[in-house]
Design a protein that fits this description.
With about 230 residues, this protein is α/β, with parallel strands linked by helices. The chain has helices at about 40-50, 75-80, 95-105, 110-125, 140-150, 170-185, 195-205; strands at about 1-10, 15-25, 30-35, 55-60, 65, 80-85, 160, 190-195, 205-210, 215-220. It binds adenosine-5'-diphosphate. Adenosine-5'-diphosphate (ADP) binds near residues 13, 37 and 42.
């Protein structure tokens, strides 16, 4: 599904963020990416989203080289990828329901589809009781669950979760990880970046360790080796 072929990325100031990264991720995998701050994790995600391109090497999604993808096809790629951020990035003036509904509106879904899918997806993240709350009326864990609902509502093939538990306490972290696991069990590929050793070990899935722009380990069984 995803293939990084000998990818290097240098920024204009000379910083080498990625250095010869080769990596493949199959449909249905759950992959955690760990590494110290500055290791290149965010750059890897940006290249995968087509927000930026490698200096050398190539990134492919379903065998299509993202650099060669036409501009008009980018929105379609973005719809196939749901993104979850550490800082939630919800719209403050919309309720939980409206935040999720808005993602469907942007994707061109009908009012009927929205009315049927939004409650369903909010139930999946156990937020039925709070769907009319605004972000300021929700806890960190609840905000992240809204963000997950928003990320999955258009049935993406891939979820990218960039430090999704970075602002959460251990109980909420555990809940978010369980939800991501459930989404993966339903068939969606998940790529998670995290600093949290407990998360990686609880998952027991593939772990890629990055350091100074390189992959230094790729374990199939959930070892956090920093
Ligand atoms: P991580 O997500 O693992 O913390 P990043 O991918 O954000 O790592 O950063 C990798 C390296 O690239 C760091 O040294 C960072 O300072 C640098 N970097 C990231 N983005 C930019 C940018 N836009 N311009 C210059 N350097 C950058």
């Amino acid at each position: 599904m995803i293939y990084f072929d000998n990818v290097s990325k240098s920024y204009p100031d000379g910083t080498v963020a990625l250095n010869g990264v080769t990596l493949s991720v199959k449909q249905g995998e759950f992959v955690s990416i760990v590494g110290h701050s500055g290791a290149g994790k965010t750059t890897l995600m940006k290249l995968l989203l087509g927000e930026d391109h490698p200096t050398t090497g190539s990134v492919s999604f379903d065998s299509v080289n993202l650099k060669k993808m036409k501009k008009k096809d980018m929105p379609e790629l973005r719809r196939r990828i749901g993104v979850i951020f550490q800082d939630f990035r919800l719209l403050p003036n919309k309720t939980a329901y409206e935040n999720v509904a808005f993602a469907m509106e942007v994707a061109g879904k009908t009012d009927e589809e929205i009315a049927s899918d939004v409650p369903h997806v909010l139930e999946l993240v156990d937020l039925t009781k709070k769907m009319w709350n605004f972000p300021r009326q929700l806890s960190g864990g609840e905000l992240q669950r809204v963000a997950i609902a928003r990320a999955i509502v258009n049935h993406p093939d891939l979820i990218i979760a960039d430090e999704p538990t970075g602002n959460l306490d251990p109980i909420n972290t555990y809940e978010i990880v369980q939800i991501l696991k459930k989404i993966n069990d339903m068939g969606t590929t998940v790529i998670l970046t995290t600093h949290n050793k407990g998360v990686v070990e609880a998952l027991g899935k593939r772990v890629i360790t990055m350091d100074h722009g390189r992959i230094i380990r790729d374990d199939s069984t959930g070892k956090y080796a920093l």
